[in-house]
Amino acid sequence: MSGALTIVGLGPGSADLITPAASRALAEATDLVGYGPYLDRISEIRPNQTVHASDNRVELDRARLALSLARSGRRVAVVSGGDPGVFAMAAAVFEAVEKGEPAWRDLDIRVELGVTAMLAAAASVGAPLGGDFCAISLSDNLKSWATIERRLKAAAEADFVIALYNAASKARPHQLDRAFDFLRNLKGGETVTVFARAAGTGHAEVTVTTLAEAKASAADMRTLVIIGSSSTRLIDRAGRLPFVYTPRSENS
Ligand code: SAH
Questions:
Q1: What is the DSSP string of 93-141?
Q2: Which of 39, 50, 69, 114 is the most exposed place for a label (fewest CB within 10 A)?
Q3: Could you read off the pLDDT of 136-164 as tens digits, one per residue?
Q4: Which ligand 1 atom lies nearest to the CA of residue 114?
């Protein structure tokens, strides 16, 4: 049997947000490759499936391992949180293919999509992505802080709703405050700001605040931050979290 490689999105966390197609790709694999905590999310690993757990930072090594296994005839699933194409493993696999052995290009490689954190976070508060939006990763492991600021500035000037991935981590505790300070100079302090932690899981925590009040200490590595456009607004509800939405029409 010829080998194959599927990069599978596990969604934001809860089992019922894994697509049936992703579950099928996992069930059909002989080998499961990925970051340990993502592999731990797979509810059923059969005895004949081999698990290759690795650290979070070694994405290219992991991609090469997966490609080598597929080349040797295995059916490999590389797992990724959320969607594998959003700040995740699918791009690492294609980078390895581009730079690696020519034979890897002939492998049956597929991407099995998943629900990305931005959508789970948005759904948990209403419809903040109802107007034009963009997504920016705040991690400067793979790009410079100057690039991040240039993109934040462009997004603010274009009045996009901004979804911030990799908003905070232990290794980068100050960047989110730096990003908030930077954006406060470009956008109104009253701009709606949402912190969604573990969105799309049974223990989601969502807070709604303003850009003026936003503090990095409210975020960790499982938090997605949404910063509204000038038309993003709240619908207040007594004793409950307000709905957050961005109207689709410029004029409403
Ligand atoms: N491929 C993933 C994103 C990987 S980057 C996806 O499509 O969702 C990792 C970042 O995603 C985290 O630092 C956090 O900002 C965000 N994230 C992942 N899962 C999340 C969740 N359940 N709730 C909120 N943010 C999450």
A1: HHHHHHHS-GGGGGSEEEEE----HHHHHHHHHEETTSS-EEEEE---S
A2: 50
A3: 999 988 899 999 999 999 999 999 999 99
A4: 7
